[in-house]
Amino acid sequence: IGAWCFADHVGPAAVTEERGLDVGPHPHIGLQTVTWLISGEALHRDSLGSEQVIAPGQLNLMTAGNGIAHSEEATGRYAGELQGIQLWVAQPEDTRHGAPAFEHHADLPRIEVGAGTATVLVGELEGQTSPARRDTDHLGVDLELGTGQTDLALVPTHEHGIVVLEGRLVVEGHEVEPGMLAYLGVGHDECRITTEGPTRAMLLGGTPLEDELVMWWNYVGRSRDEIIEAHRAWTAQDTDRFGAVGSPLPRIDTGPPPWGRTDG
After folding, report:
1. Can you give the pTM of this predicted structure?
2. Domain ranges of the chain
3. Three-class HEC string of the chain
4. Tens digits of per-residue pLDDT, 169-206?
């Protein structure tokens, strides 16, 4: 959907002060991670030296570029339910080989919409623009809705999708629940959502990505050779490319990609 290329619904799960997501240091290339919680707290560490707790209503955005490593951990202070979503955005050619970066946003634009509130994580909706970095023309919005009808203005040259985290909704005559994604192709200038109770969902959108992506494990590239090269660097513990994460968790390794070397 636009440059959005991956969505991981996290939880709901019970965490303690010392046991949380427990995702040890691992690598990324060619993508941005967009992390958003609707309950709980988590601690982000990365090879740039970032150490940032994220809570509901806050955004962590990490840009991998040519290479970065990070971990997601317990905070040492929060115990309770944890739920959220981590999304990936494929970086375009002019930034995907660039330097890695990290940013945290504690204050994001909120809009009152039909049956609730929309928070603009990335991009622009109804005149409200997120301060978060955006390398392509894409949109990410959290929808916190009650019972009723919500009409959202869309950019007709974008394609869109809706991911439900809690509750259920109806869009274009189709019921959407957690574990499902509703896809709206280009040509829509409005989206009507109907909800019959408390619902949390993500609206994603963007200009259709023309590049053909190659994705494997934690890497987003344009060829298998790029993925092989990155994974060799991670396996060799190449800190020039991926740096080092000051995490108490063990780093994550895996075997090589399931293909041989190729020219394209």
Report:
1. 0.95
2. 4-206
3. CCCEEEEEEEEEEEECCCCCCCEEEEEEECEEEEEEEEECCEEEEECCCCEEEECCCCEEEEECCCCEEEEEECCCCCCEEEEEEEEEEECCCCCCCCCCEEEEECCCCEEEECCEEEEEEECEECCEECCCCCCCCEEEEEEEECCEEEEEECCCCCEEEEEEEECCEEECCEEECCCCEEEECCCCCEEEEEECCCEEEEEEEECCCCCCCEEECCEEECCHHHHHHHHHHHHCCCHHHHCCCCCCCCCCCCCCCCCCCCCC
4. 999 899 999 999 999 999 999 999 999 999 999 999 99
Nearest by Cα to 201 from 171, 174, 166, 170? 166
CA distance 138 to 3: 7
CATH level 3 topology of 4-206:
Jelly Rolls (2.60.120)
